[in-house]
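Fig. S4 source data, part A: sequence.
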Amino acid sequence: MATPGDDNLIHDWAEMGPRRAQWPAHVMIDDETLRDGLQSPSVFDPPAETKIRILHLMESFGIETADVGLPGAGPRQREAVLRLCREISDQRMRIRPNCAARTLMVDIQPIAEATQLTGVSIEACLFIGSSPIRQYAEEWQLEQMVRHTREAIHFAVGEGLKVMYVTEDTVRSSPEHLRVLLTVAIEAGAERVCLCDTCGAATPHGVFNLVAWVRALLDSLHAQTVGIDWHGHRDRGLDLANSLAAIEAGATRVHGTALGIGERVGNTPIEQLLVNLRLLGLRNDDLTHLPEYVQVVSQATRVPISFNTPIVGRDAFRTATGVHAAAVIKAQNKGQERLADQVYSGVPASWIGRAQEIEIGPMSGNSNVQHYLAARGIPETPELTKSIIEHAKKSTHILSEDEVLELVRRTSVRARASM
């Protein structure tokens, strides 16, 4: 019989068979909430004070870098970037800032000025559309793109900025053009390259192939020290899977946003990245502030948290189904909280400061009621349990605490009347 310490309590099929992932020792995260996240057409841009609070919550998880804005977009964005960078400097924060910019001097100059005014080194994320469809729509020639790339990176490096070269719509770009653009960028001084699924069009297989191809290109250029970033969108719902495929293929930093907010339907959710990377052993962050983080972002941007949002939704660790609840309760009765946290959950609730919750509803059994009452210090009797179960079976929803307490009151009144 298996015991709680045995590895065979949970069998991991990812560790056997013909397809096994090869994970790195560690992967970095770049939080895009305060830039790409705020480009969502439905969000509100919060004040600088709220952005500072969000930045500190990012810091609490050990997130390495954060995109603090696009200062070339206007005075409000520029002021927010300055406030955030000054906070990083004044509070001696570990998190490092970066800023997005087109491959144009008019966008790069404000980043250089922010560095000069705050004394904080800012990574310049210089982007240009690289796919044939984008080139056709913009009427760009490859020679023109090469010139913009070289001039922009030379200018940024000359201003003392570290550069990440971002090829928009990388997943739909041809290898012939990518080879030219990435080679020019590296020769001009880019320290990282960012591969993008700008339109959320990629599949995990395609992402793996793309990142592996870029890794091989860097090797051929003797540019092994150049880092690879992955920036994905969720139009096809493959955002998290694509991020994991990118890591498996050699990406050393992946991007995301709180609640996945961003352009159109958004980006890879940071909360899902953090938990999955910890589950895979690629990070070991303290995630107890994760619910606070998403709640602050939700309130600040006015993006509601759906009840079934993975990890942070109201129902993430909540059940009223009798079979599920019984298994959790039996595990708790063994005195094994770790067992109770995993017997019906793929994510340990305790990691984010939550616990498995047992409710009472139409699919519940006696064990639900008994646990519910015990958790609230209410003496359980067969008559009370029967009364609650009968009411729950007729209900169309999970019983609220007020409903259960009213049933407790009525049962108590009946019991006294029969004495």
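Fig. S4 source data, part B ends here. The beta strands are 28-31, 65-67, 96-102, 123-129, 162-168, 192-197, 227-232, 253-256, 318-319, 357-358.
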